[in-house]
Amino acid sequence: MVAKLIDGKAIAAAKRQAIKAHINILKRQGMIPGLAVISIGSDPASEAYVRGKVRDCIEVGIHSEVIRFSENVTEEQLLREIRALNVDDHIHGMLIQLPLPEHISKWKVAQTIGPEKDIDGFHPVNIGKVAANEGGFVPCTAAGIIEMIRETGVSVSGQHVVIAGRSTVVGKPLALLFLNQDATVTICHSRTRQLFQYTRQADILVAATGKEALFHAGDIKPGAIVIDVGMTRSAEGNLVGDVAFEEVKNKASLITPVPGGVGPMTRVMLLEHTLIAAEQQRKKGS
Ligand SMILES: Nc1nc(=O)c2c([nH]1)NC[C@@H]1CN(c3ccc(C(=O)N[C@@H](CCC(=O)O)C(=O)O)cc3)C=[N+]21
Hints:
alpha/beta, Rossmann fold, six-stranded parallel beta sheet, 10 helices, 15% strand, binds 5,10-Methenyltetrahydrofolate, THF_DH/CycHdrlase_CS
């Protein structure tokens, strides 16, 4: 079997067009959705992501603001900026670029973002809503993965989803989202014994370990759906996933490429969440 690609880049492009059309309607009604991105430090990779986000916003007509802080910004300075954005009427969504410096508490940051503007799902209210299956914003990567699978038309109900990785932004929220769709979910992580015994049982495998080409053909169930969240820069400078794509593609039924898979979906979900946040805040305001 040769797997069909789940073309994240193409799905994201189509979604961007739909979002753009929707925003045009809002604009005619006098509303411009606004996104603030807070970026701390000057990591070149981080800078590239931020520039990408700004470009995406321009393409669909979202007003964007980037707030840059140096690596040694104090926690209080950061929290003050977040509080200011919470009451800024031009801003409907905010994203604080991860990772944060060691001296800043991610949990304090999460609690300070107004839940209605928390489009990357950091705030405890949003985490709670997702756990209770009551909506709520989820991290854009997790949302993008769910959206990609929805696009394939495959029902996840009753399927065994194995997630390798338990991060707050990917593994954990994704497990809840799949559970909410009636999947059977196994979460594996760095301390899991016999990791590959689990992955071989997966109808849907989500590889989010950050370990370059960890999963090979022998670790995958024939016909599985394989979602590769990994994004490591190889020694040759290429972007590589957690999955040995060339061999696994002959065993899976559907597979996401790296690049061009989960990455573009993450970016487009940021736009969609900003649009949703803007609409929700408009309803509340009127
Ligand atoms: N609060 C927060 N939320 C995030 O979602 C978040 C974050 N912090 N910090 C940094 C990481 C990284 N990230 C990426 C998203 C898309 C691509 C992307 O579009 N990648 C392209 C390739 C880009 C290239 O070639 O370098 C692709 O996979 O096709 C990459 C990286 C979001 N992050």
